Amino acid sequence: MKLVLRILFFLLLGALAIGLYYKNQIEFSLGERIIGFTVLGGAFIYLPLFLYHHWKGKRLQDYTMSDENLKKMREK
Questions:
Q1: How far apart are CA 8 and CA 6, in angstroms?
Q2: How many structural domains comprise the chain?
Q3: What is the pTM of this model?
Q4: Other C-beta atoms within 10 Å of 34: how many?
Q5: How many CB atoms lie within 10 A of CB 38?
Q6: pLDDT single digits (tens) 1-44
Q7: Measured on CA atoms in the order 7, 21, 37, 50, is the torsion positive or negative?
């Protein structure tokens, strides 16, 4: 999963660079489309995969402010 995330990150970074190049040098509207699809891919494909990979195996209760966690903090 880590390798997939790295490859996808560099692909998105490369697509963003290509989109910026096209926007400034070749054709403005095509560059805007490439940048837009890159942002959509990053938001709807890369971000959920990244969050799933980094939250796998962790408990949400450890990171929320519940009564039990507040009591532990007050004891310290």
A1: 5
A2: 1
A3: 0.74
A4: 20
A5: 21
A6: 999 999 999 999 999 999 999 999 988 999 999 999 999 999 99
A7: positive
- The single-letter DSSP state of residue 57 is T
In order of 1, 42, 66, 75, the CA distances from 72 in angstroms are 35, 38, 10, 5
CB 22 within 8 A of CB 34: yes
Taking Cα atoms as reference points, which of 5, 4, 37, 3 lies closest to residue 18? Answer: 37
Phi-psi region of 58 (alpha: psi -120 to 50; beta: other; left: phi over 0): beta
Per the structure, the complete domain to which residue 42 belongs is given by: 2-75
